[in-house]
Specification:
The structure is a homodimer of 243-residue chains. Chain A is an alpha+beta fold and 243 residues long. Chain A has 2 domains: 82 residues, Glutaredoxin, CATH 3.40.30.10; 121 residues, Glutathione S-transferase Yfyf (Class Pi), Chain A, domain 2 (Up-down Bundle). Chain A is 52% helix and 6% strand. A 4-stranded mixed sheet of chain A has the order 2-1-3-4, with helices on one face. In chain A, strand 1, helix 1 and strand 2 form a beta-alpha-beta unit. In chain A, helix 1 runs parallel beside helix 3, helix 3 runs antiparallel to helix 4 and helix 4 packs antiparallel against helix 5. The radius of gyration of chain A is 18 Å and the shape is globular. Chains A and B meet through strand 4, helix 3, helix 4 and helix 5 of A and strand 4, helix 3, helix 4 and helix 5 of B.
């Protein structure tokens, strides 16, 4: 049976980290809110979220439905899918190490979101623009180097070589790191200018993922939603500045 | 061999969610930074974090060391410990459901942190006090009801009864929800006034966890660090207001 991915229609957002894993593996999946018909569309997702009979209600999308099982949160979905898609180590202990890396990516993504929404998700960006400028300045000055520097160091210290974030084979966290770099390049082009020299292993990983046949095919397809200002990574020129 | 927990000395913080699970289970563990001697103390944690030879470097505490395996992030540590401490369901699918609940708690904890640090973790609270007031107001108005309302609903819709967040037995997420309520009561007493009527199942769960012998003993012990203004849950009267 095909995996069912439920996520907000019209944005890459957090769902994109799951899509990249499914696409790389060539898995059969239904991007539920982007299709129409019975059990499809955003209405189907909202019915699932609001169900008063479902015993395992998720807090927020993305969700993965595999048969009767509903799994929420990106890192959790990837932890579940990893072995099935051959994107996780065979060693069980190392799967927790991989999950730790993915959860650091999760934290970074939440900080990216808060650059444009530092006060409240419920308010418009325009209503918190000054605070967004202050938070983005700190983000570029402190947080980007801290997170990217960390991932660069993990790559460099990988005893199996700097081509992968863990071990000697592709994992879902490599795909997520590609997406992090793509998103930062979109949202903060000035801040990211010259990142290839500062983070050579991360830059090489990004390029290697982009060149993988299934990923390259996906990125050119209509299934890849373009970045836009409703997603996590948003390009607001007033928030971007040279690092 | 005893589990080794590494976390910042002097605060409950994120480490407390792990401590509660270890304490409830009566597990043997070393709270590394709170002890002295070889391989103990904050220095030992910093050496591990900064190691240039370690192949699996964590981004931030808390960390759990089990033999040679180093696991980072609260939800990941609890996912790993759950079956070992008999605080997770036997069914593997349900363990992912439990992890999803724990990751929602993780997100909520990050939002609690940002009530006093909305602009930058690297700046003092005093340097972002006005923004903290704005964020806390939204937090009390929008986010507390959203998160607590969600957990109340999950409890109420549990087909095995409202005593536990998942299934019919205690899990680590029940312990974490106790800590969430404890922390909110400490940090936002005005906002939480009367919460028992709004969230009866959550309130009953909190009280039931507090009464468990191992937890009750732990809370009275010196191992339980008091809440303070260096942790995640901080009491700043100017951020608190009636809901």
């Amino acid at each position: 049976m095909a995996f069912e991915l439920y996520y907000w229609n019209g944005i890459q957002g957090r769902g994109e980290f799951v899509r990249l894993a499914l696409e790389e593996a060539g898995a059969v999946y239904i991007d539920v809110t982007r299709e129409s018909g019975p059990g499809r569309g955003t209405g189907a997702m909202m019915r699932l979220m609001r169900s008063s009979s479902e015993s395992h209600i998720p807090f927020a999308p993305p969700l993965l439905k595999d048969g009767e099982l509903i799994i929420s949160h990106v890192a959790n979905i990837l932890f579940y899918l990893g072995p099935k898609l051959n994107l996780a180590p065979k060693d069980e202990g190392l799967r927790y190490v991989l999950n730790g890396l993915q959860l650091t990516i999760t934290d970074f993504v939440a900080e990216v979101h808060d650059t444009h929404h530092p006060i409240a998700t419920s308010l418009y960006y325009e209503d918190q623009k000054e605070e967004a400028k202050a938070r983005s300045a700190e983000f570029i000055r402190e947080r980007v180097p801290k997170f990217l520097g960390y991932f660069e160091r993990v790559l460099q210290q990988n005893p199996k070589g700097a081509k992968h974030i863990l071990g000697d084979a592709l994992t879902y966290a490599d795909l997520s790191l590609f997406q992090i770099i793509e998103g930062l390049n979109y949202a903060f082009p000035k801040a990211m200018d010259g990142y290839e020299e500062k983070y050579p292993a991360l830059s090489a990983l990004h390029d290697a993922v982009a060149a993988r046949p299934n990923i390259a095919g996906y990125l050119k397809s209509e299934r890849r939603i373009p970045f836009n200002e409703d997603g996590i990574f948003r390009y607001y020129p007033e928030l971007d500045r040279a690092a």
